[in-house]
Design a protein that fits this description.
The structure holds 2 protein chains of 2 kinds. The model of chain A has no long low-confidence stretch (mean pLDDT 96). The longest helix of chain A is centred in the C-terminal third of the chain and has 19 residues. Chain A has 18 helices and 9 strands. In chain A, the strands form 2 sheets. Chain A has a 5-stranded mixed sheet, sandwiched between helices. In chain A, β7 and β8 form a beta hairpin. Chain A is an alpha/beta fold. By secondary structure, chain B is α+β, with helices and mostly antiparallel strands. Chain B folds into 2 domains: 60 residues, Arc Repressor Mutant, subunit A, CATH 1.10.10; 81 residues, 3-Layer(aba) Sandwich (Glutaredoxin), CATH 3.40.30.10. Chain B is built from 8 helices and 4 strands. In chain B, α2 runs antiparallel to α3, α3 runs antiparallel to α4 and α4 crosses α5. The mean pLDDT of chain B is 95. Classes of the chains: A alpha/beta, B alpha+beta. At the A-B interface, β3, β5, β9 and α14 of A face α3 and α6 of B.
């Protein structure tokens, strides 16, 4: 694909490293900021983004323009507002935002300027996971350079709009990716989600209107504003506009991440870009968009990787980063690993999640170790139903945790039965 | 622990005051302040936690609620180097368990422990976003991918010698 068809990664070159401000401008950067601050009103920017059909790339898929539309309209100079980049990329199997931030941090900076201009926020924060040391260095460097050249700070390009960014390096908890837990963390408290309303757009960080957008979402804004909503919408293959960073990990031939048109068929991602399976392995199933999405088996490979199509197939697009289960890895072992993660990362605020997820993990431990019973299976099914339905826990953590379990109970029913009948993991004892 | 070790060095105290001043409310600097202490001492001792709480105008228990909540804040001493070996799904599929067992044998410790010579602490970590090069780990601030047993055997002696 030509650079024009890869607006998120066109300027990423692992050999030369991230572009500086000059190289970024040569590659088409800052055009959008000049255009927005020079010729567009904040409402115009929101309108273009709404018409582009850009949806949140962090996993939930909420319309970006719509999300912004709930923010009170006062100019940044009259009311404290925040624009926050959610860079707490902690969904297992997901490494797309790290690629974007390390590869071209200025595109995130410019995306934040545009989003902040649209909602008239004067304060920008990048909520970065603590493990991303290289991304942190490169972002700090990019912000410093942008500030020096007047792209950040007071009266950007001589306009009335002032905006600056600071990096918050977090200390590692998955739940911080949940936007209200993220805000709670920034206020110096344990990262527990908040009840809504108030929604962050009206009562967010320190009570001020706040917008939290994912890194990939924000990186889409400069090309959208520079090239227009219609151009962006046309990049997608189906109803959703733009490109998407897709990826694959597990025993595929070439694990990696690729920027492809939104709606690229899963088969093309796995077979063409990831090069199919490694020699000697067959694809058994996969999680299409991170740990909190439901398993799809090989029969679903022709699904288009857009929000509606993956949902119709029984899962979620999530982060778009697939985790592949091969035929020589025990599916129950994999689900146990996933549920260990979710149990550990539960914030502990509400009882069903805090107590239910470790219970699920223990049941899976027993089954995998050969001491599981049919009663344990019934108990797992009950947990999948009770915790899986939204509204029974405080946030979406437990329903997310139940997605691979509920789908796995159906898809791998024979494997579960074999573990219980043989009192051991058949796969681990096959050799 | 001597009195000198219980107080924060003046430069660190000034750094934390500046962090607090940059926030609308001082407690907004909690994580940054605790990380600053950890950068200096390697971990967060109770006297240091108390000192930070005082600077931020928080109760010690309130701040400890944060210090004990986050995976990357250490409330116990760690070795000179910390190995964070990913235990999430892609790395598990690609064989992180045998690597962990190997490290356990070579270092004579289990996950969560520090070697007798105080050189290395081995900890599991959740997905570190290097799944295309699984199994992956962080050694201090450096990311390592496609880790195998020979790579570990090359790495460990150097870490043990490094100050």
């Amino acid at each position: 694909m030509s650079a024009a068809q890869r607006p998120l990664t066109a300027m990423i070159d692992p050999v030369t490293g991230p572009p500086d401000c000059t190289a970024y401008e040569r590659g088409g950067g800052w055009q959008a900021t000049r255009k927005a601050l020079g010729t567009l009103s904040p409402a115009d920017v929101t309108d273009i983004v709404t018409r582009s059909k850009l949806r949140g790339r962090g996993g939930a898929g909420f319309g970006t323009g719509q999300k912004w539309s709930f923010v009170p309209k006062e100019p940044a100079s009259e009311r404290r507002k925040y624009l926050i980049a959610n860079a707490d990329e902690m969904e297992p199997g997901t490494f797309k935002d790290r690629w974007l931030m390390e590869g071209n941090p200025l595109q995130l900076v410019e995306g934040m300027i545009l989003a902040a201009y649209a909602v008239q926020a004067g304060h920008g924060i990048i909520f970065l996971r603590g493990e991303y040391h290289l991304a942190c260095q490169r972002l700090e460097h990019a912000i410093g350079q942008a500030r020096q050249l007047g792209w950040l700070g007071p009266n950007i390009l001589g306009s009335a709009f002032s905006f600056d960014i600071h990096v918050h390096s977090s200390a590692g908890r998955y739940i911080c990716g949940e936007e209200t837990a993220l805000l709670t963390t920034l206020e110096g408290r344990r990262a527990t989600p908040r009840s809504k309303p108030p929604f962050p757009q009206t009562g967010g960080l320190w009570g001020a209107p706040s917008v939290v957008n994912n890194v990939e979402t924000l990186c889409n804004l400069p090309p959208i504003i520079a090239n227009g909503a219609e151009w962006f919408a046309a990049l997608g293959l189906g109803d959703d506009g733009g490109t998407k960073i897709y990826g694959a990990s597990g025993r595929v031939a070439r694990p990696g991440a690729w920027e492809l048109p939104m709606g690229t068929p899963l088969r093309q991602i796995i077979e063409e870009h990831a090069g199919g399976m490694r020699p000697g392995y067959r694809l058994r199933a996969l999680l299409p968009g991170g740990a909190s999405t439901a398993f799809l088996d090989a029969s679903a490979l022709d699904v288009a990787m857009d929000y509606a199509s993956v949902e119709k197939a029984g899962s979620r697009l999530g982060t778009g980063m697939a985790i592949v289960l091969d035929d020589q890895t025990c599916p129950i072992g994999m689900i146990r690993n996933l549920e260990h993660f979710f149990a550990q990362e539960s914030c502990g605020w509400c009882t069903p999640c805090r107590d239910g997820l470790p219970w699920v993990e223990r049941l899976l431990d027993a089954i995998e170790e050969g001491t599981g019973t049919q009663e344990d299976m019934d108990q797992l099914g009950r947990h999948a139903r009770m915790l899986g339905a939204p509204g029974r826990t405080f946030c979406a953590h437990a329903p997310g945790a139940m997605a691979p379990l509920a789908s796995g109970l159906k898809l791998f029913a024979d494997d579960f039965a074999d573990h219980i009948a043989q009192c051991r993991c058949p796969q681990r004892h096959a050799a | 622990m001597s009195t000198a070790e219980e107080t924060l060095p003046a430069a660190l105290e000034a750094e934390i005051r500046a962090l607090a001043a940059a926030e609308p409310y001082p407690r907004g600097a909690s994580i940054a302040a605790l990380k600053a202490v950890q950068r200096h001492f390697g971990w967060i001792s109770t006297p240091h936690l108390r000192a930070v709480a005082e600077l931020l105008g928080m109760s010690m228990d309130d701040l400890d609620g944060i210090a004990t909540y986050f995976n990357l804040l250490f409330r116990k001493p760690v070795g000179r180097h910390v190995i964070l070996l990913c235990d999430s799904v892609s790395c598990w599929i690609m064989g992180r368990d045998p690597l962990c067992a190997h490290l356990g044998r070579v270092l004579a410790i289990r996950q969560g422990e520090t070697t007798a010579d105080n050189a290395i602490t081995l900890l599991p970590t959740v997905c570190i976003g290097h799944c295309d090069h699984a199994p992956a780990m962080l050694v201090d601030d450096t990311l390592h991918g496609d880790v195998d047993i020979p790579a570990l055997d090359r790495l460990i002696p150097g870490l043990k010698e490094q100050p």
